[in-house]
């Protein structure tokens, strides 16, 4: 007796078709699984055997061989429990019409009692179904994330018994579909608001510009200046996710096993890993590769507080994904790619003690201390930031004097408008915002008048700008012009952009 069951293995977010072949023959009772890593084989065969028995089915006292093909595809053990069990139940006759199996894909982990448990990566698995079979039997707890795929019918199940009844025609399961736009938080209600923070108008303005153009930004300021509070409120001024973005983000969270019950990530991610985090947790990787913080921040914000405290190798590893908007993790026999298009927001103290240039406290650091501290971030890494702003600490009297700031919604409306202008402008290019402008595209899209050119060249001489620094000012100026609703970049836009290149040199 022989049965063949369809399933999917994941490499990153890419699904690969796997055929689970089950053969039963005379011989000593055994369950041999071929095509899985050793440890996973052992665990899977235990679970499958117990699940089948405890669900009340007969487990054949014969020789059962399970082959997961193709062999060269790396397979995570637990998601194949269900297809393996279905194959066994087909060869033993518990599933009466074995033809019907061909019309379905199966994925799910089994408990010893036969219940079907949630798996990681269900959404990318379902999305990668491309052949004529458009039915997928999936764990009940994965239904919310997979029911958003409209090209595949989802059959959620709770127990192996239920699957057998369903395949035998004794039980009906009605597939449901949910539409992503209905699940998105278009009104974005947040607990925090930009208006919570008094003063700091320049920093807020800088964040508004950064959010509009997708610019990476670093904030430098003493403890208590509010730079962390500001960064944490950044999501409140970001435009809502659109459907395509939400689907991308949700796939990554599905692969990482991080989806909540709603099934869809419906607001822009904001990730703030601690500076002690390992390279694998930030970049991605591990024994069975999982998306790292840079991918979990896809279409959102990666916030690195106390930037110089991060391990140098971690910071250096960020450079490539910042350029490419994706990360490739290379492992033995395997390469896995995850999207990683995020806005990098960083905060740091001006010096090791934190009080350099503070109006009240005295800084106890020597010039070489400060230089060493800032040199923890390499030149090429500094180059990834389009904007640098100083966030001065406000004195108590300044705090009480200052009027309440604008509410997030008003800022968000401007950011959303500016973003819309960029999407329209770059619709024939492969970029979405000003921050992604390459030198070639800067020439194509940013045309300066004589006055603007003269002013910028003059400033470049004074500031000793490199070509890269020059381009960054142009990109930021383009965003300021977009916020201003101006089709051309004009003098005031350039003048403001120059302010966001704070001189971080130490006197
Ligand atoms: Zn100091």
Binned strand content: 15-25%
CATH level-four homologous superfamily name of the largest domain: P-loop containing nucleotide triphosphate hydrolases
Helix share, percent? 25-40%
Distance between the termini: 82 Å
Number of helices: 20
Q: List the uncertain runs.
A: none
Category by helix and strand content: alpha/beta
Gross geometry: elongated
Round the Cα radius of gyration to an integer and report it: 28 Å
Give the strand line-up of the largest sheet: 11-14-17-10-18
Mean pLDDT level? 91
Bound molecules: zinc ion
Could you characterize the architecture of this molecule?
This protein is an alpha/beta fold. The protein folds into two domains: 2-167, Ribosomal Protein S5, domain 2, CATH 3.30.230; 194-499, P-loop containing nucleotide triphosphate hydrolases (Rossmann fold, 3-Layer(aba) Sandwich). It is built from 20 helices and 18 strands. It has helices at 38-54, 81-91, 122-127, 143-146, 160-167, 180-183, 201-213, 227-232, 243-255, 279-283, 293-296, 312-324, 367-374, 379-382, 396-401, 408-425, 439-445, 450-463, 467-483, 491-499, and strands at 2-11, 14-25, 30-34, 63-69, 105-106, 109-110, 116-117, 135-139, 153-157, 217-220, 270-271, 284-285, 290-291, 301-305, 326-331, 334-339, 343-348, 387-390. The strands form six sheets. A five-stranded parallel sheet has the order 11-14-17-10-18. It has a four-stranded mixed sheet with strand order 1-2-4-3. Helix 18 (450-463) packs parallel to helix 20. The termini are far apart. The mean pLDDT is 91. The site of zinc ion has 8 residues, from loops.
């Amino acid at each position: 007796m022989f049965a063949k069951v369809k399933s999917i293995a994941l490499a990153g977010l890419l699904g690969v078709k796997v055929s689970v072949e089950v053969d039963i023959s005379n011989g000593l009772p055994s369950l041999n699984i071929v095509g899985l890593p050793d440890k996973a084989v052992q665990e899977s065969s235990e679970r499958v055997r117990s699940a089948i028995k405890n669900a009340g089915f007969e487990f054949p006292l014969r020789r059962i061989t399970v082959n997961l093909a193709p062999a060269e595809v790396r397979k995570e053990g637990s998601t194949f429990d269900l297809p393996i069990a279905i194959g066994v139940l087909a060869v033993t006759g518990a599933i009466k019409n074995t033809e019907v199996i061909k019309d379905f894909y199966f994925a799910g982990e089994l408990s010893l009692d036969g219940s079907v448990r949630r798996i990681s990566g269900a959404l990318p698995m379902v999305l990668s179904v491309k052949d004529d079979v458009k039915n997928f039997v999936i764990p009940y707890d994965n239904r919310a994330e997979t029911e958003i795929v409209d090209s595949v019918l989802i059959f959620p199940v709770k127990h192996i018994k239920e699957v057998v009844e369903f395949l035998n025609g004794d039980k009906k399961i009605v597939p449901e579909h949910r539409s992503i736009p209905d699940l998105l938080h278009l009104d974005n209600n947040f607990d925090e608001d930009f208006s919570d923070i008094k003063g700091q108008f320049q920093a807020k303005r800088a964040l508004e510009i950064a959010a509009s153009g997708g610019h990476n930004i670093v904030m430098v300021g003493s403890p208590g200046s509010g730079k962390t509070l500001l960064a944490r409120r950044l999501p409140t001024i970001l435009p809502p996710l659109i459907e395509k973005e939400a689907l991308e983000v949700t796939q990554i969270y599905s692969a990482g096993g991080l989806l909540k019950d709603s099934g869809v990530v419906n607001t822009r991610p904001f990730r703030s890993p601690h500076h002690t985090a390992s390279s694998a947790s930030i970049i991605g990787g591990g024994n069975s590769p999982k998306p790292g913080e840079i991918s979990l921040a896809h279409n959102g914000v990666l916030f690195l507080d106390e930037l110089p405290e991060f391990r140098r190798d971690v910071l250096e590893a960020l450079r490539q994904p910042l350029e490419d908007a994706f990360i490739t993790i290379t492992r033995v026999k395997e390469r896995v790619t995850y999207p990683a298009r995020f806005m990098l927001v960083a905060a740091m103290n001006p010096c090791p003690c934190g009080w350099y240039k503070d109006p009240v406290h005295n800084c106890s650091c020597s010039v070489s201390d400060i230089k060493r501290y800032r040199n923890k971030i390499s030149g090429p890494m500094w180059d990834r930031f389009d904007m640098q702003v100083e966030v001065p600490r406000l004195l108590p009297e300044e705090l009480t004097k200052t009027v309440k700031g604008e509410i997030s919604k008003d800022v968000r409306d401007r950011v959303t408008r500016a973003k819309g202008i960029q999407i329209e402008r770059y619709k024939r290019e492969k970029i979405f915002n000003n921050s992604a402008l390459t030198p070639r595209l800067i020439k194509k899209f940013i045309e300066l008048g004589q006055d603007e050119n003269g002013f910028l060249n003059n400033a470049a001489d004074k500031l000793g700008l490199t070509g890269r620094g020059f381009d960054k000012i142009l990109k930021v100026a383009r965003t300021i012009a977009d916020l201003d609703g101006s089709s051309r970049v004009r003098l005031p836009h350039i003048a403001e952009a120059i302010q966001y290149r704070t001189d971080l040199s130490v006197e």
